Protein backbone atom coordinates (compact mmCIF):
# COMPACT_ATOMS: atom_id res chain seq x y z
CA UNK A 1 0.00 0.00 0.00
CA UNK A 2 1.37 3.36 -1.04
CA UNK A 3 1.50 5.58 2.04
CA UNK A 4 2.05 8.81 0.13
CA UNK A 5 -0.74 11.28 0.77
CA UNK A 6 -3.05 11.89 -2.17
CA UNK A 7 -3.77 15.48 -3.20
CA UNK A 8 -6.39 16.36 -5.81
CA UNK A 9 -5.59 19.42 -7.91
CA UNK A 10 -8.57 20.98 -9.67
CA UNK A 11 -8.26 23.88 -12.08
CA UNK A 12 -9.38 24.46 -15.65
CA UNK A 13 -5.93 25.86 -16.44
CA UNK A 14 -3.85 22.80 -17.37
CA UNK A 15 -0.60 24.70 -16.89
CA UNK A 16 -1.44 25.57 -13.32
CA UNK A 17 -2.53 21.98 -12.61
CA UNK A 18 0.78 20.76 -14.00
CA UNK A 19 2.88 23.28 -12.08
CA UNK A 20 1.20 22.45 -8.76
CA UNK A 21 1.35 18.72 -9.50
CA UNK A 22 5.07 18.85 -10.22
CA UNK A 23 5.70 20.70 -6.97
CA UNK A 24 3.57 18.23 -4.99
CA UNK A 25 5.29 15.25 -6.60
CA UNK A 26 8.67 16.73 -5.70
CA UNK A 27 7.46 16.89 -2.09
CA UNK A 28 6.54 13.20 -2.22
CA UNK A 29 2.79 13.49 -2.59
CA UNK A 30 0.62 11.48 -4.95
CA UNK A 31 -1.42 13.68 -7.26
CA UNK A 32 -4.79 13.32 -8.94
CA UNK A 33 -5.92 15.91 -11.46
CA UNK A 34 -9.25 17.30 -12.59
CA UNK A 35 -10.12 20.16 -14.91
CA UNK A 36 -13.66 21.09 -13.92
CA UNK A 37 -16.06 20.71 -11.02
CA UNK A 38 -17.82 17.64 -12.36
CA UNK A 39 -14.58 15.81 -13.05
CA UNK A 40 -13.45 16.83 -9.55
CA UNK A 41 -16.38 14.99 -8.02
CA UNK A 42 -15.54 11.89 -10.10
CA UNK A 43 -11.99 11.92 -8.73
CA UNK A 44 -13.20 12.54 -5.17
CA UNK A 45 -15.47 9.50 -5.30
CA UNK A 46 -12.92 7.28 -7.06
CA UNK A 47 -9.79 8.21 -5.18
CA UNK A 48 -10.85 9.92 -1.97
CA UNK A 49 -8.02 12.44 -1.65
CA UNK A 50 -6.84 13.73 1.70
CA UNK A 51 -6.73 17.33 0.51
CA UNK A 52 -8.14 19.19 -2.48
CA UNK A 53 -6.59 22.25 -4.09
CA UNK A 54 -9.61 23.74 -5.76
CA UNK A 55 -9.90 26.63 -8.19
CA UNK A 56 -12.96 28.86 -7.98
CA UNK A 57 -13.57 29.95 -11.57
CA UNK A 58 -14.25 26.77 -13.52
CA UNK A 59 -16.72 25.64 -16.14
CA UNK A 60 -19.61 23.25 -15.51
CA UNK A 61 -19.43 23.55 -11.73
CA UNK A 62 -17.38 26.22 -9.95
CA UNK A 63 -15.12 25.68 -6.95
CA UNK A 64 -17.51 27.27 -4.48
CA UNK A 65 -20.26 24.86 -5.50
CA UNK A 66 -17.96 21.84 -5.22
CA UNK A 67 -16.72 23.00 -1.81
CA UNK A 68 -20.22 23.63 -0.48
CA UNK A 69 -21.41 20.21 -1.64
CA UNK A 70 -18.36 18.52 -0.18
CA UNK A 71 -18.66 20.19 3.20
CA UNK A 72 -22.35 19.35 3.30
CA UNK A 73 -21.77 15.66 2.67
CA UNK A 74 -21.03 13.61 5.82
CA UNK A 75 -19.00 11.16 3.76
CA UNK A 76 -16.58 13.78 2.46
CA UNK A 77 -16.79 16.78 4.77
CA UNK A 78 -13.49 15.95 6.49
CA UNK A 79 -11.50 16.34 3.29
CA UNK A 80 -9.47 19.55 3.52
CA UNK A 81 -10.24 22.12 0.85
CA UNK A 82 -7.82 24.86 -0.16
CA UNK A 83 -9.58 27.32 -2.47
CA UNK A 84 -7.61 29.21 -5.11
CA UNK A 85 -9.32 32.57 -5.37
CA UNK A 86 -9.07 35.32 -7.94
CA UNK A 87 -11.83 37.58 -6.79
CA UNK A 88 -13.35 40.75 -8.17
CA UNK A 89 -11.06 43.14 -6.32
CA UNK A 90 -8.03 41.80 -8.16
CA UNK A 91 -9.27 40.74 -11.58
CA UNK A 92 -11.74 42.68 -13.70
CA UNK A 93 -13.19 39.67 -15.50
CA UNK A 94 -14.74 37.92 -12.50
CA UNK A 95 -17.81 38.63 -10.40
CA UNK A 96 -16.81 36.39 -7.48
CA UNK A 97 -16.35 37.99 -4.07
CA UNK A 98 -14.68 37.08 -0.79
CA UNK A 99 -18.15 36.52 0.66
CA UNK A 100 -18.73 33.64 -1.76
CA UNK A 101 -15.61 32.01 -0.36
CA UNK A 102 -16.70 32.41 3.25
CA UNK A 103 -20.04 30.80 2.62
CA UNK A 104 -18.38 27.89 0.83
CA UNK A 105 -16.72 26.80 4.11
CA UNK A 106 -13.30 26.10 2.67
CA UNK A 107 -10.50 25.36 5.14
CA UNK A 108 -8.00 27.74 3.53
CA UNK A 109 -7.88 30.37 0.80
CA UNK A 110 -4.92 31.17 -1.43
CA UNK A 111 -5.12 34.21 -3.71
CA UNK A 112 -4.13 33.98 -7.33
CA UNK A 113 -1.53 34.33 -8.65
CA UNK A 114 -0.46 31.67 -6.20
CA UNK A 115 2.80 31.43 -4.36
CA UNK A 116 3.76 27.77 -4.62
CA UNK A 117 5.87 27.81 -1.45
CA UNK A 118 2.98 29.22 0.59
CA UNK A 119 0.67 26.64 -0.90
CA UNK A 120 3.08 23.84 0.01
CA UNK A 121 3.27 25.09 3.60
CA UNK A 122 -0.50 24.88 3.86
CA UNK A 123 -0.57 21.41 2.29
CA UNK A 124 2.08 20.19 4.71
CA UNK A 125 0.25 21.67 7.70
CA UNK A 126 -2.96 19.86 6.83
CA UNK A 127 -1.44 16.52 5.87
CA UNK A 128 0.82 15.94 8.87
CA UNK B 1 -22.97 19.82 -35.84
CA UNK B 2 -19.72 20.07 -37.75
CA UNK B 3 -18.12 16.88 -38.95
CA UNK B 4 -14.54 16.54 -39.93
CA UNK B 5 -12.56 13.66 -41.32
CA UNK B 6 -9.42 12.44 -39.60
CA UNK B 7 -6.32 14.36 -40.58
CA UNK B 8 -4.24 11.22 -40.86
CA UNK B 9 -4.56 7.49 -41.17
CA UNK B 10 -2.99 6.94 -37.78
CA UNK B 11 -4.99 6.34 -34.63
CA UNK B 12 -6.15 9.34 -32.65
CA UNK B 13 -3.82 10.49 -29.92
CA UNK B 14 -5.36 10.44 -26.47
CA UNK B 15 -5.19 13.75 -24.62
CA UNK B 16 -6.49 14.72 -21.20
CA UNK B 17 -8.53 17.43 -22.80
CA UNK B 18 -9.16 20.57 -24.77
CA UNK B 19 -9.63 23.88 -23.02
CA UNK B 20 -11.50 26.51 -24.99
CA UNK B 21 -11.19 30.10 -23.82
CA UNK B 22 -13.70 32.12 -25.77
CA UNK B 23 -15.01 35.64 -26.01
CA UNK B 24 -11.54 37.16 -26.10
CA UNK B 25 -10.17 40.26 -27.76
CA UNK B 26 -6.86 40.05 -29.57
CA UNK B 27 -4.41 42.92 -29.22
CA UNK B 28 -1.57 42.87 -31.71
CA UNK B 29 1.34 45.29 -31.61
CA UNK B 30 4.05 45.63 -34.21
CA UNK B 31 5.69 48.97 -33.79
CA UNK B 32 9.21 50.34 -33.78
CA UNK B 33 8.41 52.99 -31.23
CA UNK B 34 8.05 50.36 -28.55
CA UNK B 35 11.65 50.45 -27.42
CA UNK B 36 10.98 48.40 -24.37
CA UNK B 37 9.94 51.11 -21.96
CA UNK B 38 6.54 51.77 -23.60
CA UNK B 39 5.83 48.07 -23.63
CA UNK B 40 6.78 47.79 -19.97
CA UNK B 41 4.60 50.78 -19.16
CA UNK B 42 1.66 49.35 -21.03
CA UNK B 43 1.93 45.96 -19.36
CA UNK B 44 2.27 47.69 -16.01
CA UNK B 45 -0.88 49.71 -16.63
CA UNK B 46 -2.79 46.59 -17.64
CA UNK B 47 -1.61 44.80 -14.50
CA UNK B 48 -2.64 47.77 -12.33
CA UNK B 49 -6.07 47.73 -13.95
CA UNK B 50 -6.40 44.01 -13.13
CA UNK B 51 -6.60 43.00 -16.78
CA UNK B 52 -5.93 39.29 -17.02
CA UNK B 53 -4.12 37.98 -20.10
CA UNK B 54 -5.09 34.57 -21.30
CA UNK B 55 -2.15 34.49 -23.67
CA UNK B 56 0.91 36.57 -24.43
CA UNK B 57 3.20 35.93 -27.38
CA UNK B 58 6.14 38.25 -27.88
CA UNK B 59 9.25 38.61 -29.95
CA UNK B 60 11.92 41.18 -30.68
CA UNK B 61 14.14 41.99 -33.62
CA UNK B 62 16.66 44.79 -33.97
CA UNK B 63 13.95 46.94 -35.56
CA UNK B 64 10.87 46.27 -33.53
CA UNK B 65 9.06 44.53 -30.76
CA UNK B 66 6.06 42.47 -31.77
CA UNK B 67 3.60 40.94 -29.45
CA UNK B 68 0.07 39.69 -29.33
CA UNK B 69 -2.08 39.13 -26.31
CA UNK B 70 -5.59 37.96 -25.62
CA UNK B 71 -7.79 39.52 -22.97
CA UNK B 72 -11.43 39.13 -22.01
CA UNK B 73 -13.59 40.96 -24.53
CA UNK B 74 -14.98 43.01 -21.65
CA UNK B 75 -11.44 44.25 -20.92
CA UNK B 76 -11.16 45.71 -24.43
CA UNK B 77 -12.78 48.87 -23.08
CA UNK B 78 -10.17 49.09 -20.27
CA UNK B 79 -7.39 48.91 -22.81
CA UNK B 80 -8.94 51.56 -25.03
CA UNK B 81 -9.40 53.82 -22.01
CA UNK B 82 -5.74 53.36 -21.11
CA UNK B 83 -4.52 54.09 -24.59
CA UNK B 84 -6.76 56.99 -25.57
CA UNK B 85 -4.97 59.67 -23.50
CA UNK B 86 -1.55 58.17 -24.34
CA UNK B 87 -0.73 58.46 -28.05
CA UNK B 88 2.64 56.78 -27.55
CA UNK B 89 0.88 53.71 -26.18
CA UNK B 90 -1.69 53.74 -28.96
CA UNK B 91 0.74 53.74 -31.87
CA UNK B 92 0.80 50.51 -33.78
CA UNK B 93 -1.75 48.81 -31.57
CA UNK B 94 -4.52 46.85 -33.19
CA UNK B 95 -7.32 45.65 -30.98
CA UNK B 96 -9.32 43.21 -33.01
CA UNK B 97 -12.22 40.92 -33.16
CA UNK B 98 -13.30 37.93 -31.21
CA UNK B 99 -10.86 35.05 -31.02
CA UNK B 100 -10.74 31.78 -29.14
CA UNK B 101 -7.87 29.89 -27.58
CA UNK B 102 -7.90 26.15 -28.07
CA UNK B 103 -5.47 24.50 -25.69
CA UNK B 104 -4.68 20.80 -26.05
CA UNK B 105 -3.20 19.22 -22.94
CA UNK B 106 -0.92 17.74 -21.89
CA UNK B 107 1.55 17.93 -24.74
CA UNK B 108 4.10 15.78 -22.91
CA UNK B 109 6.81 17.52 -24.94
CA UNK B 110 5.69 15.68 -28.06
CA UNK B 111 6.14 17.78 -31.21
CA UNK B 112 3.90 15.38 -33.11
CA UNK B 113 0.94 16.85 -31.28
CA UNK B 114 1.84 20.34 -32.44
CA UNK B 115 2.30 19.12 -36.02
CA UNK B 116 -0.96 17.21 -36.08
CA UNK B 117 -2.85 20.14 -34.62
CA UNK B 118 -1.53 22.62 -37.15
CA UNK B 119 -2.12 20.18 -40.00
CA UNK B 120 -5.69 19.50 -38.88
CA UNK B 121 -6.54 23.19 -38.72
CA UNK B 122 -4.82 23.91 -42.03
CA UNK B 123 -6.68 21.11 -43.81
CA UNK B 124 -9.95 22.48 -42.47
CA UNK B 125 -9.00 25.88 -43.90
CA UNK B 126 -8.94 27.58 -40.52
CA UNK B 127 -6.66 30.62 -40.28
CA UNK B 128 -4.34 30.70 -37.26
CA UNK B 129 -3.54 33.98 -35.51
CA UNK B 130 -0.84 32.22 -33.55
CA UNK B 131 0.10 29.18 -31.56
CA UNK B 132 2.32 28.55 -28.59
CA UNK B 133 3.35 25.92 -26.13
CA UNK B 134 3.41 26.25 -22.37
CA UNK B 135 4.17 23.97 -19.46
CA UNK B 136 1.33 21.60 -20.23
CA UNK B 137 -0.59 22.85 -23.25
CA UNK B 138 -0.30 23.62 -26.93
CA UNK B 139 -2.57 26.55 -27.67
CA UNK B 140 -3.98 27.67 -31.01
CA UNK B 141 -5.48 31.13 -31.57
CA UNK B 142 -8.37 31.05 -34.03
CA UNK B 143 -11.27 33.29 -35.02
CA UNK B 144 -14.39 32.84 -32.96
CA UNK B 145 -16.39 32.32 -36.13
CA UNK B 146 -14.32 29.17 -36.78
CA UNK B 147 -14.78 27.67 -33.32
CA UNK B 148 -16.99 24.70 -34.17
CA UNK B 149 -14.94 23.77 -37.21
CA UNK B 150 -11.67 24.09 -35.29
CA UNK B 151 -12.90 21.83 -32.50
CA UNK B 152 -14.16 19.31 -35.04
CA UNK B 153 -10.82 19.39 -36.86
CA UNK B 154 -8.89 18.73 -33.65
CA UNK B 155 -11.29 15.97 -32.66
CA UNK B 156 -10.44 14.32 -35.94
CA UNK B 157 -6.90 13.79 -34.67
CA UNK B 158 -7.19 13.66 -30.91
CA UNK B 159 -9.24 11.72 -28.40
CA UNK B 160 -10.17 14.36 -25.87
CA UNK B 161 -10.87 13.44 -22.24
CA UNK B 162 -12.53 16.63 -21.09
CA UNK B 163 -13.62 19.64 -23.03
CA UNK B 164 -13.78 22.75 -20.90
CA UNK B 165 -14.58 26.32 -21.74
The fraction of residues in strands of chain B falls at: 35-45%
| Main sheet characteristics of chain A | 5 strands, parallel
Q: Can you identify the CATH class of the largest domain in chain B?
A: Alpha Beta
Question: What CATH architecture label of chain A applies?
Answer: 3-Layer(aba) Sandwich
| Large-scale geometry of chain A | globular
Mean pLDDT over the full residue set of chain B: 85
Question: How would you characterize this protein structure?
Answer:
- The complex is a heterodimer of chains A (128) and B (165).
- By secondary structure, chain A is an alpha/beta fold.
- Chain A has a single domain (6-127), classed as Response regulator (Rossmann fold).
- In chain A, 40% of the residues lie in helices and 20% in strands.
- Chain A has 5 helices and 5 strands.
- Chain A has a 5-stranded parallel sheet with strand order 2-1-3-4-5, with helices on both faces.
- The longest helix of chain A has 13 residues, at 14-26.
- Chain B has 165 residues and is an alpha+beta fold.
- Chain B folds into 2 domains: 13-22 and 99-164, 2-Layer Sandwich (Alpha-Beta Plaits); 25-97, ACT domain (Alpha-Beta Plaits), CATH 3.30.70.260.
- Chain B has 5 helices and 7 strands, in the order E-H-E-E-H-H-E-H-E-E-H-E.
- Chain B has helices at residues 37-48, 76-83, 87-90, 111-123, 147-155; strands spanning 13-31, 53-60, 65-72, 93-105, 128-133, 138-143, 158-164.
- In chain B, strand 5 (128-133) and strand 6 form a beta hairpin.
- The longest helix of chain B has 13 residues, at 111-123.
- The interface between A and B is medium-sized, with 19 and 21 residues.
